[in-house]
Amino acid sequence: MVSAQATVIPGLSRRPDPRMIRALAGLRHWSNREDLDVIVTNSATASALVRLAGTRVPVVYFCHGLHWNETRSIGDRVWPVIERMLLSRTAGVISLNSDDQRWFAQHLDGGRHLHLSAGVGLNLADYPIRELPNGPLRLCWIGEFSTRKRPLLALDTAAELQRRGIDFHLEMLGEGTLRTQIRAEISDRGLSGIVSADGPGDAAATLARSHALVHTAQWEGLPRVMLESLAIGRGSYAFDVKGVRDIPLSQLTTDGDAPELAARIGADWDSGRLREPLVFDRVVLDYSHAATGIRQFLPKFIGVASTTPAVQEDPHVE
């Protein structure tokens, strides 16, 4: 089915599903019909399917974040094996964080690898520098209420700030399966009126009325919300994990240690550091840098034979 802007390929999804096997033939048919020069793919499941499909077109994996952190869990050990197998079917790679950059450098020659240290960048006009708010400490947490984003650690941090006697408010913005639990926890922990989690909203406006962003994810590709915070002139407090540690000027603490994170925030509030303007050359965050890099990177693969073994095309695709 073809719309005005996109082709819907049955079985192609971000999440693993037994029905995704149907996408392999659909991807080959789509690639041949559109007479493509290069296929750029990003999400983990979709990128694996494209590289397994056996198209005649070179595939560039725009990796928004390899799906493992410190390779401590069984899952974290399986993913690198799968990705190494898929690299034999990958013409080129675009990476966003230093951990992924190092991993690809070990398994791929440099000419096939582009690294974007500021990610895809921002339209800076959407994130103008804002003056810091007056009054008590205002913090925000912005993201999906999910297991990987660990919003409960934001509540742990808030509880520790409350224990320390700091006058503050934490605004949690976003949606997800854990939001109902978070709202219940706010009440149960006596944080009502101090912490709010009212759902999705305007991230730029929320950052503008805050002194800093709190980020608690287990790992990231490159957290865009932390770049948005930086562009507006707000610092971030987070754990030292993959992707997050690449954000300039972020204040990092031991992974999962909410009391330590609260202590860092409290110390910077008491010292006046959080009331001072953030000094950073935000021009490096502009999307034009990424656009130029990608525009120069992709043409080198045009006319290059696909690294994926071609598969006989099935003339009939449902």
How would you portray this structure in words?
- Residues 12-106 form the Glycosyltransferase subfamily 4-like N-terminal domain.
- GO terms for molecular function: glycosyltransferase activity.
- Keywords: Glycosyltransferase, Transferase.
- This protein is an alpha/beta fold.
- The chain has two domains: 18-120 and 289-301, 3-Layer(aba) Sandwich (Rossmann fold), CATH 3.40.50; 124-275, Rossmann fold.
- It is 34% helix and 14% strand.
- The protein is built from ten helices and ten strands.
- Strands 7-6-5-8-9-10 form a six-stranded parallel β-sheet, with helices on both faces.
- Helix 5 (151-163) packs across helix 9 (258-271).
- It is elongated and about 65 Å long.
- The N and C termini lie close together (10 Å).
- The model is unreliable at 310-318 (pLDDT under 50).
Blueprint of the fold:
Blueprint: H1 22-34, E1 39-41, H2 44-52, E2 59-62, H3 74-87, E3 92-95, H4 98-107, E4 113-115, E5 137-142, H5 151-163, E6 168-173, H6 179-188, E7 195-199, H7 203-208, E8 212-215, H8 224-232, E9 235-239, E10 251-253, H9 258-271, H10 287-297
Parallel strand pairs: 1-2, 2-3, 3-4, 5-6, 5-8, 6-7, 8-9, 9-10
Helix pairs in contact: 5-9
